[in-house]
Amino acid sequence: MDLKELRINEDRLRETLETSAGIGATKNNGLERCAATDEDKQMRDIYVSWLKECGCEVVIDEMGNIFGIRPGKNRELGAVLTGSHLDTQKPGGRFDGILGVLGALEVLRTIHDNNIQLERDLIITDWTNEEGGWFAPACMGSGVWAGNITKEFAYARKDRDGKTVFGEELERIGYKGDFPCDHKQWNLYGAYELHIEQGPVLYREGIQIGAPKGILCLHWYDVYLTGAANQVGPTPMEGRSDALLAFSEMNLVVNKVTHQMGAMVGTVGEIQNHPNSRNIIPDGVHFTVDIRSWDDDHAVKAWEMMKKEFEVIAERRGCPIRAEETWKVEHAPFDKVLWDRVVNVSEELGYTCKRMISGAGHDMSEVNKITRGAMIFVPSINGRSHVECEETPYEDCAKGANVLLHCVLRTANE
Ligand code: HGY
Ligand code: MN
Ligand code: MN
């Protein structure tokens, strides 16, 4: 068989994506399937059954990362790994991460259906809790696997409402495996991740495939402010210690410093206000700061500038501050050979392709530390993601999966 003519089964990929879209579906056509929830378990169980249908060995490690292994002819050689995440934001979309896992499954199914035996093992993965929106931080499964964070740190993390503990929930859904969550357990030759762009570039320019050169660094901080609660009526405006007012000034500082520094993004996405009553002066605020740049030092410098201004505001407003660095992943420059392969394969398949950069974080930020990595992007309609209306046409998903198929075939037969 001339492997060049091989293509994935577009209808089957669509059906698989539609099955996923029904597990944790929201009423606005989105998904709510946070890591270690019942919906995540339901999706994982189906995914594992699909892997087994293709004859894969299935390994579940201590962080619940799921590895489906298709043995190659020569098991001494390093394996090719591809995958992403099945967990979503709360609420989130039907494609973010999911296309990377189910697109990899479609590649595996296509290879299996055609009885192709690759030189190297093929491993497809579902990485646990990539999103980090419910249990922070992001990339928890791939981060422990790559050694960026410890298993103990991850297990102890609480959800956004502070009610459940990650390690306990992972155990409860039956995915706290025994296999060590450690990259040294694996012999890898290279890795790919298929993903929606989550930005406006490909859709705006009408380009079918994106080939990012890498991923920005992600730095996550948590800031806690302590004010003084009191009755809003009789308490004079002078002398108040209003934590929410102090926060309001700090939020503007994040935006101001980001614009001053340039070549970065800075966002306050999450805030809790206590006691959050319309007639009590707020005495406690927790908020998060997300800073991203291609230049890690530039990002740290921006944070130092923000923190300095926060301290002045906290002093002036009588609201003591505690600022913590919660999580960091360095910027991830991809392997030139694999990056070029994504471009060459796209063009050979007749697809338009653009070299770009990823502003969104991915498990590939962690995997790329351990083995050569590259990513394949497909357009997001109107550049929207982390929203229920997140959408990528199925024919675009299929194009991305075909690029993944041929990148995998070439690399696994090298
Ligand atoms: O934050 C991110 O970019 C990813 O969705 N975790
Ligand atoms: Mn993602
Ligand atoms: Mn995401």
Write the layout of secondary structure elements.
Elements: H1 10-21, H2 38-53, E1 57-60, E2 66-70, E3 79-84, H3 98-113, E4 122-126, H4 140-146, H5 151-156, H6 166-172, E5 188-196, H7 201-205, E6 209-215, E7 217-226, H8 243-261, E8 265-267, E9 271-274, E10 284-293, H9 296-317, E11 321-329, E12 332-333, H10 336-348, E13 353-358, H11 364-370, E14 373-378, H12 394-412
Parallel strand pairs: 3-4, 3-5, 5-14, 6-13
Antiparallel strand pairs: 1-2, 2-4, 6-12, 7-10, 7-11, 8-10, 9-10
Helix pairs in contact: 1-3, 3-12, 4-11, 8-9, 10-12
This protein binds (2S)-amino(hydroxy)ethanoic acid (HGY) and manganese (II) ion (2 copies).
What does this structure look like?
The protein has twelve helices and 14 strands. The longest helix is centred in the last third of the chain and has 22 residues, at 296-317. Helix 1 (10-21) packs antiparallel against helix 3 and helix 8 (243-261) runs antiparallel to helix 9 (296-317). The two termini are 18 Å apart. It is α/β, with parallel strands linked by helices and 414 residues long. It has helices at 10-21, 38-53, 98-113, 140-146, 151-156, 166-172, 201-205, 243-261, 296-317, 336-348, 364-370, 394-412; strands at 57-60, 66-70, 79-84, 122-126, 188-196, 209-215, 217-226, 265-267, 271-274, 284-293, 321-329, 332-333, 353-358, 373-378. The model has no long low-confidence stretch (mean pLDDT 98). The chain binds (2S)-amino(hydroxy)ethanoic acid (HGY) and manganese (II) ion (2 copies).
